[in-house]
Each structure stands twice: as structure tokens, then as C-alpha cells.
Amino acid sequence: MIALAVLDVALRAFVPTLAIGDSVPPLPLVDQDGRNFSLADLRGDVVVVTFLYTSCGDVKECPLIAAKFGRIQHAIGDAPIRLVALTLDPQHDTPARLRAFGAIYGADTSRWKLATGAPAVVEELDARLGVTSLTRRSTQGFAHDDAAVVLDRSGRIAKIVPGNQWTPDDLLAVARSYAGAPVDAWTGLRLWLAGAAERCGGGGGAFTTAGALATLALIFGAIAFAFSRAFAPRGEG
Questions:
Q1: Could you name the CATH architecture of 2-181?
Q2: In angstroms, rounded to a whole number, what is the distance separating the alpha carbons of residues 202 and 129?
């Protein structure tokens, strides 16, 4: 069994992970209403993809992700944004199970698709979208990344938001920015600071209000110090 598990991990390591700017392949999926589609069919809209499975018992994982998506869908307004929750358990998550799960969180099928498909196809897509710690079902369920992947309107990966600390407001703001929809100034500033921190090697996790205020305090403090040095009285020679 150990040898088979090692072989499975080794084989799945050859699945090429997509990067920023890559197009998502048009792999066939099925939504909670039994309709066939692929992520490529959603081009023209910004698409936010996350990962879950219906039997997840950890309220801090899949149920929390679903609750966040439930909140986001009501705040989209008329922006061209779609949500997709891709199952990690295609052998058990039938369209009917996904529909029942989505109903708990008020999933609006016009905005939010819960997707499954053939196990090999779903596992390939999960892996290519960067769910690197996906494991086969065990008594503990699945261990997996809680990332959200944002696809731009041409179907290319625009942003990968790691971890499960992202807030609905911030994830929606990221999606709105790629959709050309307005973003409120404060959220936009926090996202800009988060991007700056990420580019400087500070990680790409959630950027909280407290973090934004602390960063702004450091920036303004540095500016004030520079001005005080520049305009300080100079001693007589």
C-alpha cells in the first residue's frame, strides 16, 4: 500500500501546474443541475474557482469556503463575475449532492456553479489549478489547499489567492478589478499594499485592516523621518 501511494504521488507530480497567465484547459465538467460545461465556456466573465467537497466535516474548511462564496454571490451585482466550486471528491459528489450542499448556502446557479465530473478529469484539473496537497480519500477525508484562483475574462489565470484567510470582500474586490468594475478606495489600497508585500517576498496571504494600518504607519513614519532629516537645522561649520 505504501508503494502504491508513493507511485500515485509520483505520477500525479507530472501533471503540469498552471501559472499566472496560463489558459485553463477546456476539461469537461458537470454542474449541480447536471449541465455539461467547462471553465473555457465561461470566458467573457471573470471566474473565481475554489475547492471543496460535500462531506467535509471541518467547519473551518469547506463549509467556511462555501459560506464565503454564498456571501460573495449576493455582492456581485451586475459585474461580469462567476463563481465555481470544484469538488475534490468526484466519486461521491454527484450533481444531486452538490445541489443539496449548495442549497444550504443559497447557491444561485446563475452565478455559482458547484462542479464535478469524471474522477480522472476532476483530479487533473484540481492538480493543474495548484491544489498541491490533494490526497486520496481516507478516514480523515481530504487534505487540500484552500486557495482561490481568479481567471480573467479571457480564461487565463490572473491571480492565485492562497490559504483560507481570504475574506469575501477582498476576494470579490480582486475579481471586480479584473472585471473592470469599481472597487472602493480602502479595499483597493489594502489590496495594493498586499500586492506590494507579495512582490517584495512578504507572502500572498490575506491583508487585514490592521496590517494595512501598520504598513501605512511605517510608510508615513519613514516619510516624516526623511523630511525631518532633510529640513533639520544644520549646525554651523
A1: 3-Layer(aba) Sandwich (3.40)
A2: 22
Domain ranges of the chain: 2-181
C-alpha–C-alpha distance, residues 197 and 181, integer Å: 24
- pLDDT value of residue 220: 58
Residue carrying the nine cell digits 484562483:
149
**What is the predicted pLDDT for the residue at 29?**
98
Average pLDDT per block of 10 residues along the chain, 237 residues long: 42 68 96 97 97 87 93 95 95 97 96 96 88 51 72 96 83 93 64 53 49 53 61 57
What are φ and ψ of residue 31, in 5° steps?
A: -90, -175
**Which pLDDT value is given to residue 61?**
85
Q: What is the pLDDT of residue 195?
A: 54
**Cβ partners under 8 Å of residue 109, min gap 6:** 31, 32, 33, 102
Instruction: State the number of CA atoms in the 13 A half-sphere of 152 facing the CB.
Output: 13
**Residue 157: per-residue pLDDT:** 96
Please report the DSSP string for 68-80 in residue order.
Answer: HHHHHHHH-TTSS
- The phi-psi region of residue 205 (left if phi > 0; otherwise alpha if psi is between -120 and 50; otherwise beta) is beta
Residue of 32, 163, 136 whose CA lies nearest to 85: 32
Closest CA to 48 of 228, 170, 139, 200: 170
Between the CA of residue 110 and those of 76, 122, 166, 181, what are the distances in Å? Answer: 12, 22, 23, 19
Are 143 and 126 spatial neighbours (Cβ–Cβ below 8 Å)?
no
